[in-house]
């Protein structure tokens, strides 16, 4: 009985170690690039992923317009466009709350760029999509709930 | 990578330049199964995309594997003229890269 328990404990411990190693391996090659924010992309919690890429006061903003279909059939290719009238934007980041790693992408504007961005992302299941815009030391945030519909035959 | 992995267009609009780009890339996260072989495909995704306007960096994107395959990007630069240079380059997690440049139309 006790021996079985030992083996069980040993096995679970090994599994845990293996899991952590494999997840470390998944993101290992990124070390080549210093600029790529690996911590932010590996983060599994939405709140800390947002904290990794943004700074300053958080403002819930109505000035961010997220154009994305409410109901989606194909979650592997979801068009999203963001328009805003917030001036002097440093960074626009897109998060999908229920993806394994919430941070999708972080776009940096180095020179005067207009508040417009369009791209396509993957959304695994129905989830909140959060957009965080970094401008003049504040972090403007807006979110939208997206529903993924399974196709019925 | 093949020569034409980047499709790029830069158009003069009312208040600047609109840049549209699409890059041919698998964008695999390392968690999904390959549909044909059934094996888990290794992580292979673009990490950084940069855009230069007349040689100076205007826009850069750090992207993860949750950007859809063949990443598409569109954004606006708030000043510019016809025949300005727009260059886009990318690098992925294996260190592969490519670049492409066009003149503003």
Which helices and strands, and how do they pair?
The complex is a heterodimer of chains A (153) and B (105).
Chain A: H1 2-26, H2 38-42, H3 46-53, E1 57-60, E2 64-67, E3 71-72, E4 78-84, E5 89-96, E6 103-109, E7 113-121, E8 127-135, E9 138-148
Parallel strand pairs in A: 1-9, 3-9
Antiparallel strand pairs in A: 2-4, 4-7, 5-6, 5-8, 8-9
Chain B: E1 6-13, E2 16-23, E3 46-53, E4 56-63, E5 72-77, E6 85-92, E7 97-103
From the N-terminal CA to the C-terminal CA of chain A, the straight-line distance is 51 Å
| Mean pLDDT level of chain B | 86
Q: Widest sheet of chain B: strand order?
A: 4-3-6-7
Say how many strands of chain B there are. Answer: 7
Q: SSE order of chain A, as H and E?
A: HHHEEEEEEEEE
Q: Largest sheet of chain A at a glance?
A: 6 strands, mixed
Question: What sort of overall outline of chain B do the alpha carbons produce when their principal axes are compared?
Answer: elongated
The helix/strand class of chain A is alpha+beta
Oligomer: heterodimer
Order of helical and strand elements of chain B = EEEEEEE
């Amino acid at each position: 009985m006790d021996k079985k328990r030992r083996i069980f404990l040993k096995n679970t411990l090994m599994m845990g170690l293996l899991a952590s190693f494999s997840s470390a391996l998944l993101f290992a090659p990124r070390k080549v690039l210093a600029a790529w924010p690996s911590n932010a992309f590996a983060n599994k919690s939405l709140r800390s992923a947002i904290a990794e890429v943004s700074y300053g006061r958080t403002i819930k903003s109505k000035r961010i317009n997220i154009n994305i279909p409410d109901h989606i059939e194909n979650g592997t290719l979801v068009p999203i466009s963001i328009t805003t009238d917030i001036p002097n934007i440093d960074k626009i980041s897109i998060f999908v709350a229920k993806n394994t790693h919430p941070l999708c992408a972080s776009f940096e504007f180095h020179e005067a760029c207009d508040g417009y961005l369009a791209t396509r992302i993957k959304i695994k299941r129905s989830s909140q999509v959060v957009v965080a815009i970094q401008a003049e030391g504040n972090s403007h945030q807006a979110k939208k709930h997206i529903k993924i519909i399974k196709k019925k035959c | 990578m093949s020569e034409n992995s980047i499709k790029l267009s830069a158009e003069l609009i009312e208040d600047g330049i609109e840049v549209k780009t699409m890059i041919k890339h698998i964008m695999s996260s390392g968690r999904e199964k390959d549909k044909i072989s059934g094996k888990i495909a290794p992580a292979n995704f673009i990490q950084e995309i940069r855009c230069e306007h007349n040689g100076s960096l205007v826009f850069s994107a750090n992207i993860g594997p949750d950007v859809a395959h063949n990443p598409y990007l569109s954004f606006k630069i708030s000043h510019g003229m016809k025949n300005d240079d727009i260059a886009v380059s990318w690098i992925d997690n294996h260190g592969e890269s490519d670049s492409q440049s066009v003149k503003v139309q």
